[in-house]
Amino acid sequence: MLPDVTPAEVRAPAAGPGQVRPVSPATLRRLELAAGGLASACLAAMEERQPWFDRLSADQRAGVLLVTQTGVSNFVAWLAEPAETIRLTAEAFRIAPRDLARRLSLRQTVELVRIATDVFEQRLPPLAADEAEHRVLAEAVLRFGREIAFAAATVYAGAAEARGAWDARLEALVVDGVVRGDADDALVSRAAALGWDPAAAVRVLVGSPPVDNPPEQLGELRRHAVRIGRSVLVGVQGSRLVVLLSEQRPDRTRTDPPADHDPHPIGRLVDDFGPGPVVVGPVTANLASAHASARDALAGLRAAPGWPEAPRPVAAEDLLPERAMSGDPEAHRQLVEGVVAPLAAAGGELLRTLAAYLEGGSALEACARALFVHPNTVRYRLRRVSELTGRTPTDPRDALVLRTALMAGRLAAAARPDTPAETL
């Protein structure tokens, strides 16, 4: 136990507030001579009390010894100049090898500081010339150990901020690469450095960034993604927020960390976007192909004002009519391949019936008269259209998609004169 120390006993009348009374030059000299042995004793105690210390490389152990020796030297200098506490303690960590803070966690560093302080308490006070200096050294060890701990925390905080800033830049590069379609090995490597599984399926969400306290809202978005067992990469590009969201892998086992059960997990992330539409791109196989999802999502965001009543979020494929009208060639292609092509392959009567039904005001009897068929035949053909396309002609929204697809097919046929007109 350290002896009780009162302020009157350890501070000289002339000392300033918070300053330790200087010890005699003879004691300072003894402390200087004992510095080397003290540092070696600290290193031996670290090896004895911390099993992981032996697993450090020779360079890292030498770095710890260097910091310890500098700390001992600074302690002696501080006793002569107590006002220099902050500068001298910070210097002990500035001379450390650059990779030492990356190899040792803050918890491990605090444990080493605690061990060094214990060794100081055992070996330094006996070097005092008298009982008064003994008390001065006892209090000085505690105060200097506290300053060393604060200096260590400052170093790790600075390293964490620098690492966070670097990660943010790296994340922005990955998101920008996906948006631009630069899916090279460098992009995959950058994503892997951020902890992203390059083989995981991914979809892209786009919307406006949060207005109030964007950093906090984006942090909340990341926390929501962790709760539902997904990974995210986030990028703010001017007036739009782009989020890469991983999909749960089909080989997920019971030993994996449990995620919140939610049939619509994306809905939990939408609240962290800003006002306006949020468009969800299709699922792609991996990060290298995620540009297709980003392309569709961004095209949907540009076209979203054309459907004011759209849900939030809305799938990019649900905005195909608006995207087609805004000049998106990919929407034209998807409409033709998803609607016109399967109907044409099934026989021209389905296309003719669908066109007559939609262009005749969706009236079943009028369509039957125009085609000279029984109304039940029209009903059967419309059911076949629904089975082949996934769109119901009697639904107003699906009817808009189907009619737009017919127009896209006719435009595509007009651009290819060799296409038989009767197929469209």
Automatic annotation (TrEMBL):
Region span, Disordered: 1-21
Pfam families referenced in this protein's UniProt entry, alphabetically: GGDEF_2 (PF17853), HTH_30 (PF13556)
PucR C-terminal helix-turn-helix domain ranges (all copies): 350-408
Gene3D superfamilies: PucR C-terminal helix-turn-helix domain
Domain of life: Bacteria
Domain CdaR GGDEF-like: 181-303
Cross-referenced PANTHER family: CARBOHYDRATE DIACID REGULATOR, PUCR FAMILY TRANSCRIPTIONAL REGULATOR
Family from the record: Belongs to the CdaR family.
Name this polypeptide is given: PucR family transcriptional regulator
Taxonomic placement: Bacteria, Bacillati, Actinomycetota, Actinomycetes, Pseudonocardiales
